[in-house]
Design brief:
318 residues; 79% helix; 0% strand
């Protein structure tokens, strides 16, 4: 419990520091959102009134405290670019889209990586091992956006398995919504599956060389039984760390895929906010992304602690 509490405290401190640095960075970078909103023909008097209206004339530390109080209460204020629209409402409207895309991607990653790793780990250097290494190296080197464009050209324009650019709202037709997310999720999953396969197979090979595996074989246990019952649990410990990083990358880094497939999620909203210098919306989205990254890595550390109690014991001894 002490180990988990410490991890949670570190996560909260990290989140606080991220919010501070994020807010202060927008106060020192060049550019004025009021000038962008008013246009090039605005008079100085109009610009001054607009800055006062959106709160840019106040001290940055006072603005941060107001923003932090609103963030903790669930009121993120209003967007500069989309005047009159609540930032909380905008994020809540698009969050289910990005969240579903991320969950579908994680499902594909697990379905692909774990069976492939278990079925191809027989002997290091044999033909299946070489084929797996070849395909994983190729998948890792392919950028997600290029794979997305390749899917659009191949499965959209040639085989007509989906309509490029078509989006179905999840509130109107959920099965159709999932169908729209199938190929974007697959484009995210393939490179990340290759990464997880690479690490998981390497960990499996190391575990297969240990004494407890030879002991299990001497008792007559089959290879698949040993893999599922004994080896996989120990091999998952380093793989879970990578999986936590993959979760953080998927939940926060699907921006380009959303742009390629024109999916109205958090990523497209962040791009629109950056283009219009919508500081309140950018700050809220950056804190959301940081929250996902910190939460994923903290959860991975806690899961590893349950899989390997030696970590908890060593921390308590220290």
């Amino acid at each position: 419990m002490k180990y988990i509490f410490g991890k949670i405290v570190i996560a909260l401190i990290t989140m606080f520091l991220v919010s501070v640095f994020c807010f202060l960075s927008f106060g020192v970078i060049r550019g004025d959102p009021a000038t962008f909103l008013a246009g090039i023909n605005a008079t100085p008097e109009y610009l001054e009134n607009l800055r006062r209206e959106i709160g840019l004339d106040r001290n940055i530390f006072i603005r941060y405290l107001d923003w932090l109080g609103g963030f903790l209460s669930g009121n993120l204020g209003e967007s500069f670019r989309f005047r009159g629209e609540s930032i909380s409402a905008m994020i809540n409207d698009r969050l289910p889209v990005s969240f579903t895309l991320a969950l579908l991607s994680l499902f594909f990653i697990l379905v692909i990586s774990v069976p492939v790793s278990l079925l191809t780990v027989k002997r290091e250097g044999n033909i299946p091992d070489r084929i797996t290494n070849f395909f994983t190296a190729g998948a890792i080197s392919i950028p997600g956006f290029f794979l997305g464009l390749l899917f659009i050209w191949t499965f959209g324009f040639i085989f007509h398995l989906f309509t490029p650019g078509l989006y179905i709202d999840y509130r109107e037709n959920f099965p159709g919504f999932l169908q729209c997310l199938f190929f974007p999720a697959l484009a995210i999953a393939i490179p990340n599956s290759a990464i997880l396969i690479k690490f998981l197979r390497g960990s499996l090979f190391q575990e297969l060389q240990k004494d407890y595996v030879r002991t299990a074989k001497s008792k007559g246990a089959g290879r698949l039984y040993i893999l599922r019952r004994h080896v996989l649990k120990n091999a998952l410990i380093p793989a879970i760390t990578i999986f936590g990083m993959i979760i953080a990358e998927i939940f926060s880094g699907s921006i380009i895929i959303e742009q390629v497939f024109t999916i109205p999620g958090i990523g497209r909203l962040l791009v629109a906010a950056i283009n219009s210098r919508d500081y309140p919306l950018i700050q809220a989205l950056m804190v959301y992304i940081a929250f996902i990254v910190v939460l994923a890595n903290t959860a991975a550390d806690i899961v590893i602690m349950f899989l390997d109690p030696r970590i908890k014991t060593s921390r308590e001894v220290q």
